[in-house]
Structure formats: structure tokens, C-alpha cells
Batch of 2 targets.
Target 1
Amino acid sequence: MDAIFLVDICGTFAFAVSGVLAAVERKFDLFGVIILAFVTSLGGGTLRDILIGSTPVSWMNSDVHIYLILLTIPLAYFFMNTLVKLKKTFLLFDTIGIGLFTVLGLDKAIEVGLSPVVAIMMGVVTAVFGGVIRDVLSNQVPLIFRKEIYAFACLSGAIVYSSLNYFGLFIEFNLMISITVVISIRLLAIKNKWSIPFKPLAKRN
Amino acid sequence: MDAIFLVDICGTFAFAVSGVLAAVERKFDLFGVIILAFVTSLGGGTLRDILIGSTPVSWMNSDVHIYLILLTIPLAYFFMNTLVKLKKTFLLFDTIGIGLFTVLGLDKAIEVGLSPVVAIMMGVVTAVFGGVIRDVLSNQVPLIFRKEIYAFACLSGAIVYSSLNYFGLFIEFNLMISITVVISIRLLAIKNKWSIPFKPLAKRN
Amino acid sequence: MDAIFLVDICGTFAFAVSGVLAAVERKFDLFGVIILAFVTSLGGGTLRDILIGSTPVSWMNSDVHIYLILLTIPLAYFFMNTLVKLKKTFLLFDTIGIGLFTVLGLDKAIEVGLSPVVAIMMGVVTAVFGGVIRDVLSNQVPLIFRKEIYAFACLSGAIVYSSLNYFGLFIEFNLMISITVVISIRLLAIKNKWSIPFKPLAKRN
């Protein structure tokens, strides 16, 4: 439980930072920055909770997430220069976020008694849809449709997590391994410019 | 019950094909194709279930829909050449999908005890919003806002279905008639380029 | 209760008008106009109800909202010339809508037992997301991200409402004050072209 809460807090922070960076890049005003920080960090978990019928949505049961995000915004603003200089910062925070949220979503779906296949989907949804909603609200084609092995990384981590879970591994250990899998695949994919194109037969002619 | 299940499976298949075709046209990578297939075929029913509070969303209670869609993707890929040659294929599958899903959504809403007017709306939502979400995620103005008598076809079918239902017709018979109404109107509209423009008075000057 | 219902009806009407105006401006066909009227007026409350788990979503429990919106559409169409001549009409109806819906959403969230901070967020969500969904469906960056102190007005009204509520003021009185606060701030912001830019430090260099 405590390990899960820690993962939740870190993931929320990482995605809030990535939301602020995205909003600034798109020249939104203050309120746009706030909404994008909230949507990016809470969107995926919110969609998961709505789909599995766990309402009021989990972050609404306490004010912790709200205050965390409200604190992250000026923090990200203050260290903006540093963040922007480290070119890959946005991708890094985004990657950490998806790693943490994949296992979080999966864990919650298993808890509710959904099948492993559905649980793996919920892990991916939790990790990925905060960013998808962020991109849709910014009127952009979601990153996930165009770049890197983004979701493939989540999927791999989710499969690893549910396999290890099946064998009854300690949750803390399982969390660490699965999160590491997601983050490693994503970072390797970015570094080596991996991609899975989908060239339909029709285009060959 | 069995007839409803059959309608569900066929509609899911038809929309999954239309999702794959849309994704390929937009040059998404493999994961984008998968997401668009899922979103197009499950999106409308998901929104309906969320609105009426039937959660976990119905397709999450078994793995049937997930496997069906995962099988449809390579199938649509393999027959891509054939599908693309038949120019109207995308529209055909899309039309079959909306025909089937209109009555499906309506039936479910009536079952939950909602008023006929609300039930008709839920039929249209089920049929139409998979495509709307598909278009929003692809960063396009939803087809439904710009083309043909798309939703008018759904609406007509929904009204026919709930009228026949009121008179206590056999469900299998009712399903067949209503689905035929939707598909016929849509295909006639495409063939004859029907449209309902909405020229506001203000523009005349 | 009655005062709340009145606020609901007026807000729904105001947002439906703003939805029709937006659809006409974007040259949508009849069905697009209908969807945009529905989405703009029901979208915010729908999202709030889904988030707090109050389903079937409130407007689905009677046909009042549906008939109201269906009546508003030809009305807005008929008076289109007048509406368009009064340049600021769209903004006015939109502003009245957000004023009314802010307090409505907040009131409902408090009723369900959510914390004041979450309730204020739900007030803003109710007021703002109908317009956000309208803009996303029209493939535009939501107004809220780019213009004026839109959401700041909602936020102020929400804070005033929950403060007055805390001191046990008559609800009718409280409603009037809070709605006035939202509308005044928004109108003053439009008139004086207030905005809260968010210039990140990084951009200065």
C-alpha cells in the first residue's frame, strides 16, 4: 500500500512537470498551464477509474494530489531555465511518469477483479491517456500516435508486472522491476530512434 | 439476448476494420493503428455505459471484444489491398457499424429504465461517438459535423426501433428492420449526396 | 432546490445559445449544430457527474433539458440576425452560462460530501468543460487556454460561494452574489482586455 502511494505521488509529480513544460511550449496563459498540469497528471488515472466504475475518482478523495500539483507548477516555473537547458527533460519526466503509472493502473484493475488482459489495458490507459488528453486539448495529434515505442514500453512493463504478480513476488520488488522495464525500453527507444512502422501492403504499389 | 450479442460482435468487427483503415490513411504507426481500432469500435459503447452508470464498462467483463479486435487488425492489414480498391469500403463498414450499434445502445438504455427520448439519444451516442473519438484523436473535425446524413440515419433507426419495441415486436425482427433502416438511409445519402445544410438567416445578407 | 433548478435551466439555455452560435460560425450542418448545442450546455455537468460517480448523469433522469435545448436551437436560429448584430452576444451568453454553472457544480459536489477544494474544482469543471468539449470537437484549441480571465472568474465565484456557504447564508442570496461575481469579473476582463500571461523565465533570454 505504502509503496503504491509513493509510486502514485512520484508519477503525479513527474507528469505535472511534463504538463507545465508542454503548456509553456504551447504559450498557454497561467490558467492553461494549470489545467494542462492537472490533466496530464490526473487524466490517465481518472479515465481508468471512470472505466472501472471506481467513483468519485480516486484523487478526489483527498486534497493531496491537488496540493502536490499546485506546488509543482511554481517549482517547474522557477527551474524552467534548467529544465529547458536539459533538452531531454520533458521526455525524461514523461517517461518516469508512464513507468510509474503503468504499474499503478494495472495494480488497481487487478484489485477490482478484472481479467489480466483487461488489467494490462488499464495499466496502459493509466500511463498513456493523461498525455493523450493533454495533446488533444492542445489541438495536436497525440504524441503516442506518431513517436517512438511509447506505448510498447508500457505494454511490456504491464506484462512483466502481471507475470511477476502471478508468481507472488513481493510487491515492492515487482514494482521496481516493472518500472525499470518501462523506463529502460522508452529511453533506449529514444536514444536509438527505434520505431514500429506499420506499412500497409496497399502503400507498396 | 443471443441476437443482441451477435449484433454486438458484428458491430465491433465492422468498426475495428473502419478504425484500422482510418489509422492507415493517417499514417499512424502500429500502436496508433491498435488504439484507433479499439477506440473506434469500443468508444461509443464505453461512453454510453459511463453516462448510464453501467461500470465496469460492458466490454471489460470478458476478453471477447479485446481478442476480436486484436484478430481483426492483422486481418484488415492482410486484406488491405482489397479493402482499399473497393473505394467505398471504409464507408460501408462504418455504416454497418452505426446500424448495429444504434439499436444496441438503445436496447441497453431501455433495459436500464431510461425514458424513450433519452434511450434514442443513447442509441445515437453508441453509434456515433466511437467515430467522433477516432476523429478527435486524429486531430480532425469529426466526420459527423461535416458529412452526409450520418447521424440522421441513426436517429431514424432509433425511432423505428423504439416504436416497434413499444408494439412488442419480436426482438430479432425488430433488430433486422431497424438496422436495415439505418444502413439504407446512410447508403442512399452517400449515393445521392444528400445533406442537410443549416444556412442561418444572418448569412443571407 | 427550486432556486438551483432555475439556475440550471437558465445556464442550460445560455450555453445552448452559445453552442448554436459557435456551430454556425464553424459552418456545421444541422446535426453538427444540434450536437454542439447539446455538448456545450450538458458537457460540463456531465463530466462533473461522471467524476463524482452520480450516474445516470443528472440530465438523463428527465427529458426537461433535452426539450429545452431542442427548443432553443430554432429560437437561436430565428433570432440569429439580432444575435450576430450584437457583437458580444456569444460572449455574453457564454459568461452567463459559466456564472450559473460554477455555483451549480460546486453546490452538487458539496452535497455529495467532497472537500471544499475538490468542490471548487468541480464548480470550475462544470462551468468550463462544456466549452472545452465544444472547442475540442470543433478541432480548435479551447478558448480557455488562450483568452481572458475566463476560468479565473469561475474560480473567484466558486471561492466566494463556498465561503458564504460556510457562513450559512441563505442559498438564494448566496447564489445571486456568487453568480454576479463571476459575470462581473468576466465582463470587466473582456472590456478592459485583462489577461494573466505566464511568461516563463526561459523565454526572457
Target 2
Amino acid sequence: MPVSRDRWSKEFGEWFRSVLLNAEIMDYRYPIKGCGVWLPYGFKLRKNVLKILRELLDSTGHEEVQFPLLIPETSLAKESRHVRSFEDECFWVTHGGSTPLKVRYALRPTSETAINPMLKLWIRSHRDLPVAIYQIVNVFRYETKATRPLIRMREVTTFKEAHTAHATAEEAEKQVEKAVSVYKRFFDSIGVPYLISKRPEWDKFAGAEYSIAFDMICPDGRVLQIGTVHNLGQNFSKAFDVTYETVDGGREYVYQTCYGISERAIASIVIAHGDDNGLVLPYDVAPIQVVVIPIPYKGKEEPINEAVRDVVRKLEAAGIRVELDDREDLTPGSKFYYWELRGVPIRVEVGPRDVERGEVTVVRRDTLERSGCKLDAVVEKVVETAKQMTADLSKRAWEWMRKHIHYVDSLEKAEKLIKEREGVAQLFWCGSEDCGREIEERVDARVLGVPMDESLEREGSCVVCGRRTRYLVRVAAAY
Amino acid sequence: MPVSRDRWSKEFGEWFRSVLLNAEIMDYRYPIKGCGVWLPYGFKLRKNVLKILRELLDSTGHEEVQFPLLIPETSLAKESRHVRSFEDECFWVTHGGSTPLKVRYALRPTSETAINPMLKLWIRSHRDLPVAIYQIVNVFRYETKATRPLIRMREVTTFKEAHTAHATAEEAEKQVEKAVSVYKRFFDSIGVPYLISKRPEWDKFAGAEYSIAFDMICPDGRVLQIGTVHNLGQNFSKAFDVTYETVDGGREYVYQTCYGISERAIASIVIAHGDDNGLVLPYDVAPIQVVVIPIPYKGKEEPINEAVRDVVRKLEAAGIRVELDDREDLTPGSKFYYWELRGVPIRVEVGPRDVERGEVTVVRRDTLERSGCKLDAVVEKVVETAKQMTADLSKRAWEWMRKHIHYVDSLEKAEKLIKEREGVAQLFWCGSEDCGREIEERVDARVLGVPMDESLEREGSCVVCGRRTRYLVRVAAAY
């Protein structure tokens, strides 16, 4: 097993950035801080991941649309908490050519205030509800913290944001559950483990009634928020006057939800599965699923090449994304290195002994385990290996995450745990904002919120005030 | 034939805008001028069109990437003609939150100046060449002219821009030819007719050696530029210092080309094939290829519904994008109208007589021709009808365009022709800029340039100076 996640946990940031560049995912050397270029290989990975997300959304009643990038300041300002939260994070367009604009435009930080003026035009009656739309677009935040590729960008190149409108609060509530379930299926399909927490009041989305978030734990013990689901209640519909005619002829404001997943989804794959040798990609989203490498041997060139061509033909015919690496100026070893760095899930080697036996050698990227199979059975072997590897990647990632969640019964222990980058602390909390804020200050970490993905039978004492409580809360250093 | 293009030619602008909204392609009522919202149906159409474009580019050696939206003013300014042309058309980001930026950022009007700083990092030696990349992104122009949905937007939501770099001028030249051939195949696949012209010197892309453009003729006699191909020579590589090491160890600037197609491609489909009843979509790109409509008849409900379900099952099994319209509150007539407006290529009706005969009725959107077929043969009938309709749409559009190109031998005739919205005038021109400019002024139209899609055997006299010449030039009112 080449996986030594704990060794690189200390240099996680550096590892992450170099993998993105060396595996040709994203080039982050663009002349504007926080902006990066998707390279061809990375773009294909992104495309495969978005395909899964689109299929999940399309099959659960969402329709894809696309809204403008620019939002007039007058629209952004309509929901007061929203604008207070975002105005200092927006990039502002002030001029068209040399002409100052009468109203400044924000580059969308998120699209509630772009969408609601249109919903007001579209929604007339209860028959127009529910509305469930999504778009995959770039959004912008003027980040003043350190930026990181895919994790904290000023141009978030890939933001899938869904927006829904409903006739009743109950339907909006149900939509929140549906969204959480869709996101679970999404992260499950890429083998990324997650914690689901209800964010504390003081950390909810600006303009939401409440926010639910998906977090993952990184090798350096910090958590990364990888998805959010918000119940907006009637906050935006009241601000934008989005109403519908009820069955009995009255008028009512719609109830809304929104939920988002960004390019951090790609980051989550890199983080959850990567190792010392670079990227490890789940088979379903890998741009290249199998690389075929001939092991040349003097005098055996022709039979080896023939077997290689046969393997490639068979895999292609089975619809597998296969690449033949027949570069003549590279040794097999340097090819192994090259494709391991890029996370190709399966390598098929064809050497002189393989050919003699009518076999090929199949190597898994995650464990580097080698096993032979008859050339004629190569498709079955690849499919079976892929299936096993997909399951193992997910299992290993979940196990790793679970090992990094610790119940603690005091702030001191939580502080130590987080300082030593051990992961997430779960502790009892009375539920009050005062005690929550005190936890954050004392531990120097963020309260992720109350777990929604496990039932709690126990009762304990709030680590701050000592009151008996059944509330558990998660605390971690966060990106 | 419901097609009466000449009747609506006068109100073309209004027709176009209402079709886009009523067929639910784009909602143009967004609170910023020149920005629109892709509606679910329109988004699917866009996706199908982009799929064709992507497949064409991917199969001809291009790789998809994605560059940042923001371009620092310092980068934009490096190619002097380029910046002069674009700086007054750019939207400028001047603030991050309340902080003024040290260097202003332009919202990309096109991406040469975003891409070249990265090419400088990527290209080291002749082995790194050629580079051929493309991206499909939004671009921005601060248009001061009247804006129009899909045709003249301030946010062009969909710009496919390809950028290539080569070792020699010859290779760049060949790439231009390749790009023209790819674009021909693209427009052919959506049945849109085009004129290919080499733009005059004074109308070439800012920073190009020369520009080739695809134009179509609209029902109002004006032309719409729907694609461009530019040979950039070494203009940008010199400005950005993009060099490579040659085979013999020297250094040389790369030669570049770029070529673009925007959402005008979607507009071109609407314009080329639409009629009084609304949209007419080519089968291959239609979000819904077949709509099935039961014609209810008292006492025959069950056999009709059973036949309808059978038809839908058969079409779905054949991979056809089919929609069943079984809404009970609408008459068949209003359903016909509804789906004709949305351009669904084929309608299958199932009424009481059809059921008695074991048949269905198939109706083509373009001609509204009706014909019966056995229910068991519905898939074959749909496929055959689609094929015929695809061919006919293209043929009719090309014939219509050819009728609107006129050879004229004087400026007066050209002026009259264009004033009366008859289309494109082709006339002899000596090739000098003076005479070209004079043509533009006198005729109040644009010189599209020298035809590249027909060989000219003849010789004539320049309509301005009278010199003998073999140059023909196209002149038209232009969007």
C-alpha cells in the first residue's frame, strides 16, 4: 500500500497544489490571484463529475437554466441580511468602456438576487409551483484570506446552484430533505465521505432560515465544506415580492430553498483518494480509465505490439476510456510514474512473459496490486477490478474519516485535538449561541453544528456551562 | 406550406424576439439591458447544438479548457491594436468589496489576452506545438447599439472560442482552412446556409493578419455574422513573448489562429427555419423530437390511450426524445399550436379512425404534411420523416438564401437593392480601401468582403473607379 496519508498531512496544502498542476488538472499561475485555468485533463474530469451531478438533478425534477452573471446593486440590496453579508465580498463592475454605470453591477457571488426578479414574472398561480431549477456557472468572491486552487478561489469556476419555490413551508422542508438525499447520492458516487451538520444560527447562509452543510475532513485535520442546503423560508420572496394565487384565490409569498455544490467536489475527490504518488481517480469519473503499456523486449517487439493492439481494441469495443502509451522515448517505469500521477485507475502491462502465456498484467492504482489474466478475459478483469477498486476507495475513505472524529468531554481536550490536527471534535453543547461562540473562541476553530447524520441516544453536559443537554456539536478547524 | 417568410420579413425583429420568449428559449426581461435567461427548453436546445460543436472540435484535434473571466488591464493592453479596439467595449471591474483594485480587470471580450500569458508558460519547444484548445464561455461587450437577444447581447452567454499556436506560418494557414471546414460541417449539420467572405482590411479582427467570416441572410435582408476565423500571425506572440525552441536550437515566435462561434448559432437555427407558426427545429438538435397527441373520442378512450402508450414506448425504446401530451384541459388544436410554436419536428396523432385501422398519423412541422402509417412501423416512419425533413430544411434555406444574392453592376443598383431589403449585393471592386470605403458610404451598408465560397471566372469593372478587376465583393446591411 503506497498510501501514507499521515506522512503528507503536514504538507497537505503543498501536496494538493502540486498534484493539481502535475496531474494537469488546474494551472493556478494565471496573473490574477484566486483564478485558475482548467487544463484539458482536468476539464474532462470536471465534465465527468458534472455529468453525474446533472443526471442526479435531472432525474429528480430539476431543470437546467442559465442566468446572467451581472446583478444590479439595486437587486442585490433587496434582502438586507443578504446584501450585508455579500457586498464586501463582491467584485463590482463600475464602467462600460469609459462610461460610469448609473447602477453598479456585482459579479454574482450566488444567484438568489438574479433569480427572484424573474420568478416574480414567472410565478402567477399555485399551478406554476413548484419551481426547481439549477445552473452550473462561475461565481465570484473577493476573498481576502489566502486563496487556494479549487478550494478558495476568487473566481469559483464551477458552482452548481439549485433554486426552488413552493406553495407551503412543508413542501420547502421536504425539498431540503430531497436535496440532502441527492447530495448524499452524489458524494457516494464519487466515494467521498461526508459529515452532515446543521450549521449554528450565526453561521447560516445570509437570508436563510437555516443551513445544512456537508463537510469532509482533509489529511491536515481541517474540514472542507463541500455542499450546502438552505431553507430560505419567505425571506427572499418577501424582499422581491414573489407571490402566487392560492387555490382559494388569495395571495401568498412562495417558500424557497437553495443548495449548492462547487468545484470543491473535484477537490474532494483529489483529497479523499490521493496519495504520495499523486492523484487516484474513481473509475467512473476518470478521463482515462485504463492505460495500456507495452513492456518492450528485444526480439519480441512484434508479438507484444500485436497483443497490445488487441487489448486496446477489446477495451475500446467495451466502451472503456482507454489510452495506449506507446511513446518510444520513455521507459515503462517512467510511464508508470506518469500515469500514476494522473490517477488512471487501471494499468494494463503487456510484457514478453505475458505474451508467452497469452496473458496481460493488470495493476490497480490505489493499492498497486498486480494480477494476471488471460488476454481474452481482459474486459471482464478490468470491469471487476474497477468495481472492487470503487468500493475499496469509498470504504477506505470512510474509515479514515471516522477515525478522525473524536468525542471529547472538555474544551481543553477539544483544543488539543484540533491543535494537533486530529480532525473533528464532537462535544456536548447546551445549544445557546453564547456557549457556541465561547467554544469557537476557546478552541480557535469553527462550530460546524449539530450532526444530522447520526442519531444520538446519549445525554451529556455542555462543555461550557455544564447544563445537561442532548445536543452534540461538531467543532473543527475549517478551510 | 405555412411558410411565408416574406410576410414577416418586415417585422422580423419583433417576430424573432417573440418566438424566443413564447417558445421558451430565452427570457430577455432581465433587469440589465442585453442580458437574458436561458429557459429550460432553450437550454436543452443550446446543449444539443453545443454537443455537435464539441464533437466536431474534439474529433479534429482540439482540447477543451477553461480560462478565467477576468483579464488584467495590463494584459489586455499588450497588443496595441487589440486594446484600442476593445477597451471602450469592455466592462471594467474596479472594486473588490469597497477596496479599489490596483489594476482594473476587464470582463473578457474575447480571450487572446487571457490565454497568451499561459501559452508563454506552456510552450517551450517545437515538441510542444501545435497547441489547439477551445473553451465555451460567456464574454462581455458594452454594446452601445440596440441590443437583441442571442444576436447582440452585452453578456454573450455562449462563446465557443478556439485558439491555436503553430511553429510555422504555413501550419497556421492550414489551420485556418481546417477551421473553415469544421465550421462548414457545423452549419451544414444544423441546415443553416452561409456565405464565406474574407473581410476587408478595415474590418478584420483587431490583432489579426486577416479574418474570414461566415454570414447568413435574415428575412429582413440584413446579414448576420455567425462565425469568424482569424489568422493572427505573430502579432500576439510578439506582444506576449510566446516563443519556442526550433529544431536547430534557435528561438522563434509562434504563429497563431483563433476562431469563434457564439450563441448566434442558436439564433441562426431560429432564423433559417422558423415560420409564421413559430420555431422549426432540425430533428437532431430538437429537445423534443416527437410529440404524441391523443385525439380523444367518446367511448374510444381506452383503445386510443393504449395505442398512445404503445407509440411512446416504441419511440422511447428507439432512443427518440419523445413527449406525450396527455393534458386533459387542452383541446388537440391548442396542443398542436403549443408544440408548433416550440418547433417540435414531428407530431404523432392517434385518433379513433387511426386506432380502427391500427395506424397513427404523422405530421411534419415544416410543411404540416400529414401521412398515415401502421402503428407497428411508427419508428421507421419517424426516422424516415426526420431524415427527409432535415434534408428539406437545409435545401429550402439554401435556396432562399441564394435567391437573395444579386450581382449588380452599379452602386445605384446596390443601394436600391439594400434599401429594399433584397439581401446581398455582389459587385466588382478594384480591391482598394478607398473604393471599398466609398462603397460603404454610398450604399449605407457593409462590405462583407471577397467571396471565398465560389470561384469567379469573370472579370468586370470596379463600381467606383471603373478599373478592370477580377475581385468581387459582397455588400449588405448588417446586424
